[in-house]
């Protein structure tokens, strides 16, 4: 009887396992917390197209913009942890936003499971041509001679480039005037018209305007020069030490997603991101590909959140 019972148990377990379809067995939704057409959305769609081939299932991009990316991130946090809803996230909504909110809408480290960091994005300090500064030291001297008169644009109070502007001011010992906007497009428009004088934005956004002569670039905030602007010095090369800030893109899932699913997604992403064609395509859009293991991605996020919290604290920035 004991042998018969063991046989029944084995058969039951085998049937149960075989009843579970291999992942993925249906389309996957990839949430992007920003509007369609932007840099994050474009990168997500490029990767999703190849990832769908690798996984053998369609990947549907779901743009859920609003509240600085919090709406999209929160929708994934609330989703079933089954691998069929994932987030193409950025440091903006996952590291910066919770660091400046008085009551954060979520805790990215507790509520999401990092799968793989896709890559990093360089920021550039750019100025309107009317600003009488050809390099960062010229700008610092101008700001010191005219405290509070040089305006800089951001995407809103507590946005990534707001904190970058305050960090630059603190390190350089200058006082700039922050002008918040509702998004990148209107901020860029006023910078191009000279309504604001400088801005910190991604290299993919700024360099086309720089190359056409509509703006001038002063420095990149990356640790090394950008491939899209090899003649542009870094902040360190410009005499401003300690201001090394990059954005990042990555894929995450709701916490409690089964490890076997996370491993499948990580392996598939690794294959996609090792493709020379994908590396070249993303590089042309300002994304430097660099995949991490889930553990490395998690450790990176912890360090990044700590840094943004410190910048917010020293700058006195808090958003209700």
Biggest sheet statistics: 10 strands, mixed
Distance between the termini: 67 Å
Overall shape: it is globular
CATH topology title of the domain at 28-119 and 246-315: D-Maltodextrin-Binding Protein, domain 2
- Strand tally: 10
State the secondary-structure class.
alpha/beta
List its salient traits.
10 strands, alpha/beta, 45% helix, D-Maltodextrin-Binding Protein, domain 2, 320 residues, ten-stranded mixed β-sheet
What does this structure look like?
This protein is globular. With 320 residues, it is of the alpha/beta class. It has a domain at 28-119 and 246-315: Bordetella uptake gene, domain 1 (D-Maltodextrin-Binding Protein, domain 2). Helix 7 (160-172) links the parallel strand 5 (151-154) and strand 6 (177-180). The protein contains twelve helices and ten strands. Helix content is 45%, strand content 19%.
């Amino acid at each position: 009887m004991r042998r018969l019972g063991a046989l029944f148990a084995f058969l039951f377990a085998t049937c149960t396992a075989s009843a579970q379809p291999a992942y993925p067995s249906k389309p996957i939704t990839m949430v992007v917390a920003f509007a369609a057409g932007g840099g994050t959305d474009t990168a997500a769609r490029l990767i999703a197209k190849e990832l769908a081939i690798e996984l053998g299932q369609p990947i549907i991009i779901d743009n859920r913009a609003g509240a600085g990316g919090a709406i999209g991130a929160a929708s994934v946090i609330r989703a079933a942890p089954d691998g069929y809803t994932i987030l193409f996230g950025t440091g903006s909504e996952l590291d910066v936003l919770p660091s400046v909110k008085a009551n954060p809408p979520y805790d990215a480290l507790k509520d999401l499971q990092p799968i793989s960091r896709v890559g990093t994005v360089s920021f550039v300090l750019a100025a309107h041509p009317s600003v009488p500064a050809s390099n960062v030291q010229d700008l610092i001297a101008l700001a010191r001679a005219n405290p509070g008169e040089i305006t800089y644009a951001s995407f809103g109070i507590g946005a990534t480039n707001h904190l970058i502007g305050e960090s630059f001011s603190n390190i350089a010992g200058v006082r700039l005037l922050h002008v918040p906007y509702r998004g990148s497009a209107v901020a860029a428009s006023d910078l191009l018209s000279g309504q604001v004088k400088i801005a910190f934005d991604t290299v993919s956004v700024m360099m086309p305007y720089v190359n056409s002569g509509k703006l001038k670039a002063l420095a990149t905030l990356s640790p090394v020069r950008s491939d899209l602007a090899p003649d542009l010095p870094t902040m360190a090369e410009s005499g401003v030490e300690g201001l090394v800030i990059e954005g990042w893109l990555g894929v995450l899932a709701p916490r409690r997603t089964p490890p076997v699913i996370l491993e499948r997604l990580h392996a598939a992403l690794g294959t996609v991101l090792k493709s020379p064609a994908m590396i070249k395509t993303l590089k042309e859009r300002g994304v430097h590909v660099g995949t991490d293991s889930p553990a490395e991605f998690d450790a990176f996020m912890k360090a990044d959140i700590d840094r943004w919290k410190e910048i917010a604290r020293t700058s006195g920035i808090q958003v209700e």
